[in-house]
Design goal:
InterPro entries: HSDR_N. The protein is α+β, with helices and mostly antiparallel strands. It contains 2 helices and 9 strands; from the N terminus they run βββαβββαβββ. A hairpin with a 5-residue loop joins strand 5 and strand 6. The relative contact order is 0.15.
């Protein structure tokens, strides 16, 4: 896997059935290591180790329904009241982040109503704070650290 624009993390890897698997500490299981999963696991570690979010507030790859169509989000960080603090969309490193990617996370956020959005391909990261009153988002340098 290619080096990403994140701090270096130690991952548990294992080979099985002609593929490599990486341990996901949130889902508590090994998952097939594909380029997007490589990015996803770096983001999870970034949120836990650099931003100090508790593991109990982080959720990975769950289904949501938008306009009667089943979709899956990559990562969500909840507030302690159950509302969504951060919605993260991960792409493989070779995928350029463009307006289509922002449109995708914006559609998801119409349903989820996260306070912050993060879009990354592991190399380029974009962070936004939502303003639901004026129906737009403001770009940030980073997402906020966890605070109680």
């Amino acid at each position: 896997m290619v080096p990403l624009n994140f701090p270096e993390y130690k991952f548990r890897l294992k080979s099985s059935e002609n593929n490599v698997r990486i341990f996901d500490s949130i889902r508590k299981k090994f998952v097939v290591l594909q380029p997007e999963e490589w990015v996803r696991q770096h983001v999870v570690n970034y949120l836990l180790e650099e931003k100090s979010y508790p593991k109990s507030l982080v959720n990975v790859e769950k289904q949501l329904v938008i306009n009667d169509i089943k979709k899956r989000y990559d990562i969500v960080v909840f507030n302690s009241d159950g509302s969504i603090h951060i919605l993260v969309e991960c792409k493989a490193p070779k995928i350029n982040i463009d307006q289509t990617t922002f449109d995708q996370i914006a559609r998801y956020n119409l349903e989820l109503k996260a306070d912050y959005l993060m879009v990354t391909n592991g190399l380029d990261h974009f962070y936004c704070k939502m303003d639901f009153t004026s129906e737009k988002y403001t770009f940030l340098r980073d997402i906020p650290d966890f605070s109680r």
